[in-house]
Inverse folding.
């Protein structure tokens, strides 16, 4: 099991709380780091002072973010060699086809729509956690 | 071709055609007239000529006869003086006599006067001459054929009258040799032009067709030329009098003229003009009319060119203006002149002004529409994100409350929390359905062949999976295909079948059928479920309009509005027939302009057939 943290990029504190709760309920032990907006996320992953950033087991990215939106975050992460190969799962409320297409075009590894029904949401979070933290094999740290 | 070329060309062609056809008609008439006139003149001249020749011949014959009977001539052998005196008188009086001879009984030439003729006699006797034997035989005055005169050594014609002794027996002949050149002068014709060949000429031939006199060419006489092959001569010698056209093989030219036989000696008299000379006036007429027509045509072409240019100028200006407008310069206006084209230009300008105004209004409207659409788009996007997030919070924290504090809550509170979560989820569905409805209006329509039967099978199978306890008898006709956007067709069919599935929920032994209508390209989805009152059918396809309470049937009331929008975007139609408690019957088509089947009255609604049943579940 990969001990690296999960990076949750999400501005809605309700969703942050519910997501953390869902992971806990799924017995996911990885630390969940929360970035509240795009700029915050980029600073953590690609620090401006050149120090090595956070290397999460998976990034859960919301699209509807203030300041720098999810698509732009995705684009910048994929443009930088340090984060180019990190697994990124878009976790969003939107079911719009254009969001889906754009996310995959910018190199998202997966696209999951957050269900309104919390029980379904729990199921989705559990599956996601199990898959990315337990099953998926990442590249070794540089 | 431009107007300034077309107009003169048209005028020129019209004038040319008119003058050529008029000219041809006139020339046809004129030709007849010219020929008739020419023949008439020739006939008159031939008659005059013949009369003159006849008069001189008969005068000469009479003079000879008179002197022959007188004293002294017959006795020339004894004393030549009286005969010579008589001859001298004859020669002096007559302008056609060249010489006079006395012939003895045996044909010897006894005397010739005047004595100074060209050289000596070629022969002392004329006994071999036909005319001499004729005189002897007939005992009457004879006019000879052309022959070589023994006295002049030249072709000659003589008039011979018998000399008689007192008993009346013929003892010789008193002969007058004719000056043939004189006969050319009698022809009442003045040759025109430099050469006599160019005018009408008169000619005489003897009975054999040899030329006695030829006004045009005296050499014919000298050479004793035979004209018997000339048709006019032949006809005259055969006794015919006529006028007409013929070919003269001796002179090798076509002639136009008249001919007649000379009574008495039986000579041929011909007056003829070379055909081209006779028709020369006609040629002049042709030349004149051609020159005149061409001149008129050229002048009119010139006028046409000027007119065409003047007419075309405003048209050209208008054309330039239209070309500029078409090339994307909408503010160009045509120059306005007087006249029809000017009026056209003015109207054109008005039209451009109106268009510019309309275009402005249209652009404003299009901009407003685009802005509204963009706003709507942003709104829909925002709805999908921002309206759902709070719902998730409501549902999520409700659930957390149940999980965390469920044990300490009274059952009533738990039920309220359940209702709260259900409401949040219903609102989520509502948002999804609304977005689907707005998406139908937005996406491009790509028409393809859609297998409705297969699509219905898939949808029904999914409905069954989502609702495994239901036992619905579904009958889907095979081979239902239509031209539609596959994704939209699925949305429509999913909603219709979903409705049928939903509204048969409280029906015992429910049936759903998917079939073709009696009208091609129309399809029917029917159920025997709850149905509805036809009085409310008008509101059926409005968004959020529900004809049943949420308590009895779940739903957002957007499904049928979406179905109708799908069909409308295809240009198709949908109609609902129903009766409360008996079921609903949706008839629809994806094809535009198709006339639908007649409305089915509620009491006629058949119970959807399921035999042979394809039962699902």
């Amino acid at each position: 099991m990969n001990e690296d943290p999960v990076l949750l990029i999400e501005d809605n504190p309700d969703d942050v709380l519910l997501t953390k709760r869902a992971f806990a309920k799924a017995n996911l032990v990885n630390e969940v780091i929360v970035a509240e907006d795009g700029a915050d996320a980029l600073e953590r992953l690609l620090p401006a002072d050149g120090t090595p950033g956070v290397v999460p087991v998976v990034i859960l990215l919301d699209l509807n973010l203030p300041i720098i939106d999810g698509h732009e975050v995705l684009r910048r992460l994929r443009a930088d060699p340090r984060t180019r190969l990190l697994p990124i799962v878009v976790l969003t409320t939107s079911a719009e086809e254009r969001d889906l297409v754009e996310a995959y075009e910018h190199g998202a590894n997966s696209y999951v729509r957050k269900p309104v029904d919390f029980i379904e949401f729990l199921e989705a979070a559990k599956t996601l956690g199990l898959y990315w933290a337990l099953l998926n094999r990442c590249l070794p740290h540089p | 071709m431009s107007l300034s070329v077309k107009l003169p060309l048209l005028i020129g062609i019209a004038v040319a055609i008119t003058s050529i056809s008029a000219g041809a008609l006139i020339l046809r008439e004129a030709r007849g007239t010219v020929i008739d006139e020419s023949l008439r003149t020739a006939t008159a001249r031939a008659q005059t000529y013949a009369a003159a020749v006849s008069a001189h011949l008969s005068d000469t014959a009479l003079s000879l006869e008179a002197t022959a009977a007188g004293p002294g001539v017959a006795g020339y052998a004894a004393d030549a003086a009286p005969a010579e005196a008589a001859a001298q008188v004859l020669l002096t009086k007559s302008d056609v006599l060249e010489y006079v001879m006395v012939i003895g009984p045996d044909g010897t030439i006894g005397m010739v006067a005047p004595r100074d003729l060209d050289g000596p006699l070629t022969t002392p006797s004329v006994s071999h001459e036909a005319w001499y034997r004729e005189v002897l035989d007939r005992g009457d005055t004879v006019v000879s054929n052309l022959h070589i005169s023994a006295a002049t050594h030249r072709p000659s014609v003589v008039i011979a009258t018998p000399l008689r002794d007192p008993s009346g027996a013929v003892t010789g002949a008193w002969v007058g040799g004719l000056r043939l050149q004189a006969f050319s002068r009698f022809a009442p014709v003045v040759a025109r032009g430099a050469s006599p060949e160019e005018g009408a000429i008169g000619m005489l031939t003897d009975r054999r067709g040899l030329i006695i006199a030829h006004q045009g060419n005296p050499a014919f006489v000298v050479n004793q030329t035979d004209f018997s092959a000339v048709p006019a001569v032949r006809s005259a010698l055969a006794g015919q009098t006529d006028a007409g056209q013929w070919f003269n093989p001796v002179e090798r030219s076509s002639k136009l003229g008249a001919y007649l036989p000379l009574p008495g000696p039986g000579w041929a008299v011909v007056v003829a003009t070379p055909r081209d000379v006779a028709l020369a006036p006609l040629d002049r007429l042709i030349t004149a009319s051609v020159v005149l027509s061409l001149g008129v045509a050229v002048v009119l072409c010139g006028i046409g060119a000027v007119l065409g240019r003047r007419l075309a100028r405003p048209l050209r200006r208008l054309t330039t203006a239209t070309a500029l407008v078409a090339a994307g310069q909408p503010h160009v206006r045509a120059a306005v002149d007087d006249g029809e084209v000017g009026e056209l230009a003015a109207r054109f300008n008005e039209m451009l002004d109106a268009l510019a105004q309309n275009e402005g209004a249209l652009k404003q409207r299009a901009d407003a529409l685009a802005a509204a659409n963009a706003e709507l788009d942003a709104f829909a996007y925002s709805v999908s994100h921002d309206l759902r997030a709070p719902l998730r919070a409501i549902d999520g924290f409700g659930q957390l409350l149940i999980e965390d504090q469920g044990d300490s809550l009274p059952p009533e509170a738990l039920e309220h929390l359940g209702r709260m979560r259900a409401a949040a989820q219903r609102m989520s569905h509502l948002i999804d359905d609304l977005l689907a409805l707005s998406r139908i209006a937005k996406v491009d329509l790509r028409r393809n062949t859609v297998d409705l039967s297969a699509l219905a099978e898939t949808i029904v199978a999914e409905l069954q999976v989502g609702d495994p306890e239901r036992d619905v008898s579904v009958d889907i006709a095979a081979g239902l295909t239509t031209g539609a956007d596959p994704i939209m067709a699925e949305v429509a069919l999913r909603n219709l079948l979903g409705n049928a599935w939903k509204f048969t929920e409280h029906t015992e032994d429910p049936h759903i059928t998917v079939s073709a209508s009696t009208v091609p390209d129309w399809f029917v989805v029917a159920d025997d479920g709850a149905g509805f009152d036809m009085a409310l059918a008008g509101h059926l396809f409005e968004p959020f309009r529900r004809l049943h309470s949420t308590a009895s049937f779940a739903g957002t009331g957007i499904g049928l509005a979406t179905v109708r929008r799908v069909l409308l975007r295809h240009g198709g139609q949908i109609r609902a027939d129903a009766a409360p408690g008996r079921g609903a019957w949706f008839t629809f088509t994806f094809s535009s302009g198709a006339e639908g089947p007649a409305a089915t009255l509620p009491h006629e609604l058949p119970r959807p057939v399921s035999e042979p049943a394809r039962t699902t579940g």
Notes: The first strand of chain B starts at residue 97 and ends at 103. The first helix of chain B runs from residue 3 to 69.
